[in-house]
Amino acid sequence: MDSKPSAPAAPRRSSGWTLGHIAGAPVIVTPSWFVAAAVLTLVFGPWVLRQIPDLGAVAYLVAATFVIMLFASVFLHEVAHALMARARGHEVHELAITLWGGHTAYSGGLTRPLDGVLVAIVGPLTNIALAGGFWLAFLARADGGLDIPALLLGAGAFSNAFVGVFNLLPGLPLDGGQILEAVVWRLTGSRSTGTIAAGWAGRLIAVAVVLWALADAVVLPLVNGTPLDLNTVLFSALVAVFIWAGASTAIAGGRRRDAISALRAGDLADPVVTVPLGSTVAAALAARPPAGPGGTSPRVVVVGHADVPLAVLDDDAAGSVPPDARETTGVDAVAVPFVPRSAVGPDVSGQDLLRHLATSSGGARLVPVVEAGRVTGVLDLARVAMAVRGS
């Protein structure tokens, strides 16, 4: 159960059934939830029967009710994330209920450590508040003995307290990890440093979960001569794998963010030569010098008044013009116009560069790089994409 800040572009939506919308985002139940619900019902059924032996097969119906209550609490946990993210100015993309509980995906760019703290902490606090409410109701109900309502209320109090406290552990992908990430970010000024530190803390938590399970369910029973609790070992191992995988993804993401921050528009841009609007195809081709050592030639950019970049020569279209017609064919006939206001400065880098291209390129592949009112290069979005994938 975690909140996931994503890149400026909307992430791929989880597959499943949309139940409605909250904070402008779809609430999705994934197919894996049904697997989790069935497994948990089978796991909790015998436990319910041990608490109230007279129930018989009804114990599994009670267990199923508890599982629904548990996932309802998880849903409220995710709603808290979504509402806080929306309140802090982020776009919420989805609330998903999954095999591992759920997640909330939002974007808009985390630019302030405080946002990470607030969005993360409200989820566990919601569960802790629910635990308090269930516990008070349990105390009021338990006066009449342990019946089904009292059992469900007690289980609801314990499960919500566990979910709330466990999610506050300081390691990604848990909510407490996002809080640790924000604290380190605030202290060091680097979000990537915070992400990597919180990811390693998450790996330590995963190891600690396994060691605790082995000590509690294997070592102590061997010492005391009691049966081994292999179910606890298996469940703890699954939780540890989930945490380790999420932590590893976070570490990789932090390193990738560092690499992306080094991407600079001026470094990725192709060099250019310019020709004024009204030039012929022959003049445009003549203005371009031969290919350099790298085997690439500068791009030809058509400029208007005050050297405003208007379009870039389409080499294939220009090459298809017959040689005897190039002196009479205007360059604008074989040039691709730039999207208005798509120009980017050569020093724009990292997430700011990706955000600008996502919001201003208008789907065009090429955008001009302009410095001090003069076009200095042409940025190919395919090259940017390759650099991002390779980072």
UniProtKB/TrEMBL annotation:
CDD domains: S2P-M50_SpoIVFB_CBS. It is found in: Membrane. One of its GO terms (biological process) is proteolysis. One of its GO terms (molecular function) is peptidase activity. Its cofactor is Zn(2+). It is a multi-pass membrane protein. The chain crosses the membrane at residues 21-45, 57-76, 117-138, 150-172, 193-214, 234-254. Residues 153-196 form the Peptidase M50 domain. It holds the Pfam family Peptidase_M50. InterPro entries: Peptidase_M50. Belongs to the peptidase M50B family. This is Site-2 protease family protein. It comes from Myceligenerans salitolerans.
